[in-house]
Write a structure and sequence with these properties.
This protein is about 70% helix and about 10% strand. The protein is of the alpha+beta class and about 260 residues long.
Length: about 260
Amino acid sequence: MAALFEPSLSTSAMRPPFSTADAPSMADSLPSINFGFDELRTRMAAFTDRFDSFIAKGRKRVLEERNQFRINVAELEEDQRMRRRDLEILTQKSSQHDQMLQQQAAETAEMEQAIDTLTQQKDQASLYRASLQSQITTTKKDIATRQGAQLQHARGLDAQSRLNLPELDFWETYLGLRIEGVGKIDRLRFVFYNLDEREWSKEAWFELDTERREYAVVDFRPKVEREEIEQCVDGLNSSRDLGQFLRKMRGVFAVAIKS
């Protein structure tokens, strides 16, 4: 700073020199300089206060910004973690959905196959039903035909029985013939006795099956030639004359017992 101007300095220079006792010191002779330290100190103190306040505010702002940054980073990390968790859940749900779709597709294919199988079975059942209906119709016709034939045969047997009853009574009473049942429908046993004068207790018998229109001898005793039996049966089937058939069978058995 510049030295302050004082007028007393100019007048003192023009005065005569003092005596030794009264003479001022060298320091007194130096000009008085005011550097303004107090003002400078005050200004420096104010600057320091402002600087410290600025630094404190800056530090506080930095701390606040750093804390806020950490909070933001933590929130971002939490948000990222939640998003990863949501992504995992969505991925799991997507996998489960894909598995469900695959399962539904497999079930659909299985159901379609089952439907095709049932359709084929239905078609086969329809064909089988039509075949059965045709067979039933044919069977009914056959039954009707057989019933007619049996009815006609029954009528013939009835007419024959009217003719044979007197003769059968004669055979049973006088010629040793007995007719027995064998526990089966349409089968009779004819028993001949008094065939041998030497031994009247000997018997011969045969079983006649009348189930079909063509009669048949299914069993007989004693043992005779099968051809002779068949000849008698053929004569019965051709003539339907039961009396004549019985006479022939008695003759066959009489020969067998006497021989």
